[in-house]
């Protein structure tokens, strides 16, 4: 990082992947090789991605820290900056500053079973930790991924879902909302919390990582409680709007936490300590 804490690294868009309507993944390479060699991050962290003249947006780093030489982000077009980003092409240069925030404590999850539950565009923060875990597969016991989207076309990372489906050392369950299936759909049909209840994964020695839209999270937590998961063993990420990203501006404050510094990764036990709207 340069001496100016707000100064972004210039990053070249090496690859653009169309994931779903309005959703793209960028593979980014540091323009300055030395910056790239010094750069380190851990699963769960995020950055501020900028388009010159448009502003900055917060996205998680969606690639795994075990894959060196590049970072990836996946974003949905929602407004000013994400529209400007979406107009960028392979070879364009954008800005990135980070990494910021806390991490998924995967070192503490050694020898536990892992249950990943994701909905829609919330797979990116989880994809980082899933690849991190798969690259260190021998450290963990059973790995189960339950991923749902509104419709088949809204599933992101379709190529990787195919790859995960073929693997014998993980169990992948995909689902789409009722009415979102295509004629050749072979996955489940139903909302994510319903499918979690149906699959009923064991809570014994299991860590659950849940990322998704608020409504999915709201209905999934009680299912996990019924399955016997302790609040300390359930992790999620918060996506409060941010500005500085490292605890200076107060924009992301909630209760006693700055989400950018104390989060974005929280356990359900920590969230239960927050004001009611969370
Ligand atoms: C830690 C963290 C990680 C994130 N990771 C990702 C990611 O990997 N991929 C991704 O697509 N998005 C992610 N987001 C959300 C993303 O930051 C916003 O969608 C994005 O900044 C919108 O920028 P914009 O300028 O295009 O939209 P704006 O023009 O600023 O806003 C467009 C609309 O989106 C709403 N909006 C903007 N930011 C947020 C937000 N944080 N939460 C809810 N609504 C918002 C606005 O209220 C408005 O309605 C993350 C947010 C945080 C805090
Ligand atoms: S975004 Fe500035 S304090 Fe968190």
Concise summary:
With 278 residues, this protein is of the alpha/beta class. The chain is built from 8 helices and 15 strands. The chain has 2 domains: 9-100, Elongation Factor Tu (Ef-tu), domain 3, CATH 2.40.30.10; 106-237, Nucleotide-binding domain of ferredoxin-NADP reductase (FNR) module (Rossmann fold), CATH 3.40.50.80.
Would you kindly provide a written description of the structure presented here, covering whatever features stand out?
With about 280 residues, the chain is an alpha/beta fold. The chain has 2 domains: about 10-100, Elongation Factor Tu (Ef-tu), domain 3, CATH 2.40.30; about 105-235, Rossmann fold. The protein is about 25% helix and about 30% strand. The protein is built from 8 helices and 15 strands. The protein has helices at about 35-40, 80-85, 125-135, 160-165, 190-200, 215-225, 260, 270, and strands at about 10-20, 25-30, 45-50, 55-60, 70-75, 95-100, 115-120, 145-150, 170-175, 190, 205-210, 235, 255, 255-260, 265. The strands form 3 sheets. It has a 7-stranded mixed β-sheet, with helices on both faces. Strands 4-3-6-1-2-5 form a 6-stranded antiparallel β-sheet. Helix 6 (about 215-225) links the parallel strand 11 and strand 12 (about 235). Helix 5 (about 190-200) packs parallel to helix 6. It is globular. The model has no long low-confidence stretch (mean pLDDT about 95). The protein binds flavin-adenine dinucleotide and FE2/S2 (inorganic) cluster. Flavin-adenine dinucleotide binds next to strand 4, strand 5 and helix 2.
């Amino acid at each position: 990082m340069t001496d100016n804490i707000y100064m972004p690294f210039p990053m070249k868009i090496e690859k653009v992947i169309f994931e779903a309507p309005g959703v793209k993944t960028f593979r980014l390479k540091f323009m300055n090789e030395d910056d790239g060699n010094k750069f380190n991050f851990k699963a769960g962290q995020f950055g501020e991605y900028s388009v010159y003249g448009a502003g900055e947006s917060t996205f998680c780093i969606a690639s795994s820290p075990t894959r060196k030489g590049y970072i990836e982000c996946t974003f949905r077009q929602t407004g000013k900056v994400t529209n400007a980003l979406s107009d960028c092409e392979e070879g364009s240069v954008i800005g990135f500053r980070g990494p910021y925030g806390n991490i998924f404590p995967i070192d503490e999850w050694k020898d536990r079973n892992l249950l990943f539950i994701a909905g829609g565009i919330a797979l990116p923060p989880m994809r980082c930790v899933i690849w991190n875990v798969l690259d260190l597969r021998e450290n963990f016991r059973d790995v189960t991924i339950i991923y749902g989207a509104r419709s088949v076309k809204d599933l992101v990372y379709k190529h990787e879902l195919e790859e995960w489906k073929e693997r014998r050392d993980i169990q992948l369950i995909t689902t789409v909302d009722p009415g979102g299936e295509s004629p050749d759909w072979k996955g489940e049909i139903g909302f994510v919390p319903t499918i979690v209840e149906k699959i009923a994964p064991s809570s014994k020695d299991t860590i659950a990582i849940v990322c998704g839209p608020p409504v999915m999270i709201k209905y999934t937590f009680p299912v996990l409680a019924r399955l016997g998961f302790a609040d300390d063993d359930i992790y999620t990420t918060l996506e409060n709007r941010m500005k500085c990203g490292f605890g200076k501006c107060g924009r992301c404050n909630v209760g006693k936490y700055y989400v950018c510094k104390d989060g974005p990764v929280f356990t359900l036990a920590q969230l239960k300590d927050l004001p009611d709207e969370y």
